[in-house]
Structure formats: C-alpha cells, structure tokens
Amino acid sequence: TMRAVSSFLHQIQWFNFAILFSVVCCGLYGFTLVFQVKLLTLIWTFVCAFISGLGVTAGVHRYWCHRSYKATFSLRALLCFLQTLAIQNSILNWATNHRVHHKFSETDADPHNANRGFVFSHIGWIVMKEHPSVDEKRNIMDVSDLLEDKVVAFQHRYYGILVLLIGVMFPTLVPVLFWGESFTFAFFLNMSRYCVLLNSVSMINSVAHIWGYRPYDDTIGPAENSICAFAAMGEGYHNYHHVFPHDYRTSELGMKLNITASFIDMMEKLGLAYDLRTMSNEVITERKRKNLLRKEQ
C-alpha cells in the first residue's frame, strides 16, 4: 500500500498542483463574496464567463481544432482574445492536445483518457505526469495549419504576457476603474469565473465520456449528455461529435441547448463566418440505423 501511495505521489506534477490548488482556493473564496460585491460586478463576471466560454467552444474547439467553418481575420482575432480570456493554455497547445485526444481517444495516448477514471479525466490530467504515449503522438500530430495562422502564432509566442493582461488584469480592472469595485473583490470573483469555466469544459472530458446515451456509435466512450450540453454551451452532444467531428453544430439538434452553434450562425449572418460544415440528414440517419442494428445483433 505504501508503495502504491509513493508511486501515485511520484506521478503528481507538484508545481501544477500548487498553482491549481491556489487558484481553486481563490475561486472558492470568491464565491463567498457574491453578496458583498456590486451588482455590476456580478453581471460583468457572468459576461466574462460567457464570452470566454465562446472563445473555447466556438474558437479553439470548433474553429481551430476541427476547422468546422471558416472565419475572417476579424473573427479570428476576436475568438483569440476570448480564448485568452478563458485562461486555458494557448490555442496551439489546446488544439494540438485536442486533436491527439480525438485520434487516440481513450487510449494511453489520450491526454485525458477517461478509462483512467472520472477524477483523472476531469482534472487529474492537468496535475499528473503524462503517459509517454501522449507526447509521442503529440509530436507527430499535423498542426501545420495552426502554425501558419498568424493569430495563433502571435498568441502562442506572447501567451504569458497576453494571458496575464487579458485573462487576469482585464476582467479584474474593468470593475475597479469603471464603477469603483474593490480590486480584491474583483480579483477573487474573476478566479471564481475561471474555476466555473474550467469545470464546465472539463465535464466534456469526464462526464460526457462516461455517462449518457450513444445513438451514433455505442462502441466508443463519448456520449450524448444534456447536462454537459447546457453547462458547456452545446458541447455535450459528444457521441455525435466524435463520430462527425467536423460538423460545426456538434449535434443534429439545431438550436436546442446549443448556444455555440447559434453564435456561429450569427457570425455567418454578419459575414464573419462562412463555409459552415454539416453532415447531411441522410448520412446521420444511416449511421444511427447501423448502430441500432449492431446493438440488436
């Protein structure tokens, strides 16, 4: 038993653990301040959580990871700003990891392999040493399209200073400068915002890979999970997404609990997004039919 504990402790990246632990403590303290801060600060915190979520879902995920639509420079710059606000690593690193996750889902090469349990896939993978296969597959992953994107290259090069300015100082200083909020209150509430967003996105790696139904392919872990779809702005239709990863909707359900798809639709109407990729109803129906037949055999 002691040997097992020692082996487990050896797997922890203690610097990452210390940072995450500190941030979570700050975030938890921030929740105790919700009745002390000004109403505008609460509204601002919600707005930052919402728009930074779009930076992850519509930006680094549906656009940069899967190229499910095309975006003008203006939209790419906006999505880059919002993704930086989310404080979830650079676009290049996030997208590279996610492409590895899709290609090697639920194997040792999956960065947040759900087969290692809920805790690992939800948050443990951030603080534990990677399986050697993850880095091996990451190094052979084609990310040439990301490297050629000047927005991605700029953000990755200056990510340290950008995330400090955009992810930490910007959402903290706006309440302080514009309506006289306490700097301390604004800072800790921003940490609460970050913790909520981190957990919402992490639910897709954990909950949506363990619980739910699988109408498109019941041989894989990713599942349709309405709770995740609501919490992560439309990202919870995960069985569909892993079967049809290039569909910008990540589901066949239209606007139902799919805020991100609605945002992309709005960007298309504004002329900022175009060539939105979808799967035909015939292909979707046939895939469900074949999956049902396989289950009945």
Characterization of this structure:
This protein is mainly α. The protein has one domain (2-296). Helix content is 66%, strand content 1%. The protein is built from 15 helices and two strands. The protein has a two-stranded antiparallel ribbon. Helix 2 (14-31) packs across helix 11, helix 3 (39-65) runs parallel beside helix 11 and helix 10 (159-179) crosses helix 11. The radius of gyration is 20 Å and the shape is globular. It starts with a helix and ends with a helix.
Tag the structure with descriptive keywords.
single chain, 297 residues, mainly alpha, 1% strand
Beta content comes to under 5%
Number of helices: 15
Structural class: mainly alpha
Strand order of the largest sheet: 1-2
- Flag low-confidence runs: none
Largest sheet: 2 strands, antiparallel
H/E topology pattern:
HHHEHHHHHHHHHHHEH
Distance from N terminus to C terminus (CA atoms, Å) equals 44 Å
Count of individual beta strands: 2
What is the helix fraction of residues, given as a range? Answer: 55-70%
- Whole-number average pLDDT? 94
Quick structural overview:
By secondary structure, this protein is mostly helical. It is built from 15 helices and 2 strands.
